[in-house]
Amino acid sequence: MAWHLRVLSERVCPKSRKGSESAPLRRQQVKTLKTFSVALVVSLAANQAWGVTIVNGAFSAGLSGWTITDSVADGGGFARLSEDPVLILTSLEQQFVIPDGAVSLSFDYVISSRESPAGQQTLPDAFQASLLNPLTFESLLHMGPPHDFLQQDRGGLVTILYGKVSISGNTVTTDLSSIPGGTNALLAFDLLGSDDGFATHVDIDNVGVRIIPEPLTLTGFSLTLLGLGAYLRRRFR
Ligand SMILES: [Ca+2]
Fold first, then answer.
1. Are 226 and 43 in contact (CB under 8 A)?
2. Direct distance between the N- and C-terminal alpha carbons of the chain, in angstroms, rounded to an integer
3. What distance in angstroms lies between residue 195's CA and the mean position of ligand 1's atoms?
4. What are the pLDDT digits (tens) for 41-59?
5. Is the pLDDT at 232 greater than 60, yes or no?
6. Which pLDDT tens digit goes with each residue over 58-98?
7. pTM (two decimals)
8. Rounded CA gap, 211 and 222, in Å?
9. Interval between CA 156 and ligand 1 midpoint (Å)
10. I need a surface site. Which of 36, 117, 131, 201 has the fewest CB within 10 A?
11. What sign does the dihedral 20-22-27-28 (CA atoms) show?
C-alpha cells in the first residue's frame, strides 16, 4: 500500500517540480496524501464485515433458523438453554456453509446456576461449544477428541482449544481461517446437565461469522487508488 502511494505521489507530484513549488503547496500535498491514506485504510477495514452466514444469530426472530433439543427457550433477543434433570443433554444447533474469506466465528454466552434440592453426582453441569462435520461429527478445527472448542463447567472451569479460541468478557472468538470456504459445518451449543445439586442454564446471543469478501476488497482498493489519482491530478494540474 505504501509503495502504491509513493509511486502515485511521485507520478502526480514529480520531484523535478518540487523546486518551483512553494512550501505551503507542498505541505498541502502531504496533507492531502495523508488524508487519502487514512481514507484508504478505513475503506479496506470496512470491507471486513459480518456475513449473513448464520441465520438469526442475534435471536431477533426468536429461535427461527435454529434446531433445538429439549429445553431451549426464546429469551427475547437471546436463546436460553436450561438443564433437563432427566434427558441430560440440551442443545441449540445450526448447520451452515463456511463462506469464502471466513475469518472467525464468535458468540456471547453466560452460564448461571442455582442450588437444586437433589445432588448425588460429583460431575458438574457443563456447557460446550463445537464446530463439527455434520456427517461425521468430527471437529472441523482440530483432529481427534475432544470435539468441542470450548467447555465451561458450572464451577467456572474453562477449557478452550489452544491457539484457535480466545475469550474476551462474555464473547468467544474462534479462528476459522484454516477451514476452506464451502465446507459444511454444524455449530452446536450443548448444556450437559447432571444431578449435581445445581440447576443450570446458559444464555447464547450474537452468533456471527466475520468474513473478508475478497472481490470487494480488491474492488475497493482499486477504486480508492483511482479516486486518489484523479483527485490529485485535478488538484495539482
Ligand atoms: Ca445439574
1. no
2. 24
3. 5
4. 444 444 456 667 999 999 9
5. no
6. 999 999 999 999 899 999 999 999 998 677 899 999 999 99
7. 0.72
8. 20
9. 14
10. 117
11. negative
Q: Which residues pair with 167 in a beta bridge?
A: 172
- pLDDT per residue as tens digits for the range 6-22: 433 333 333 444 444 45
What cell was used for 128?
Answer: 460446550
Residue 134, preceding bond cis, omega within 30 degrees? no
Sorted by where each starts, the structural domains of the chain and their CATH numbers stand as: 2-12+21-49+215-235 (no CATH), 67-211 (2.60.120)
What is the spatial distance between Cα 78 and Cα 114, in angstroms, rounded to a whole number? 20
Please tell me the distance between residue 172's alpha carbon and the centre of ligand 1 in angstroms. 23
Distance from residue 127's CA to the centre of ligand 1 (Å): 11
- Residue-wise pLDDT for 150-181, tens only, equals 999 998 899 999 899 999 999 999 999 999 99
Rounded to an integer, what distance in angstroms lies between the CA atom of residue 135 and that of residue 6?
Answer: 52
Pairing, β 148-153 against β 158-160: antiparallel
Asked whether the predicted pLDDT for residue 118 surpasses 90, the reply is no
Q: Which of 213, 178, 214, 211 is nearest to 102 (CA)?
A: 211
CA of 193 to the centre of ligand 1 (A): 5
Residue 191 contacts residue 127 (beta carbons within 8 Å): yes
Q: What does the block give as the cell for 72?
A: 431451549
Per the CB < 8 A criterion, the answer to whether 130 and 237 are in contact is: no
Distance 19 CA to ligand 1 centre (A): 79
For residue 85, how far is its CA from the centre of ligand 1 (angstroms)?
7
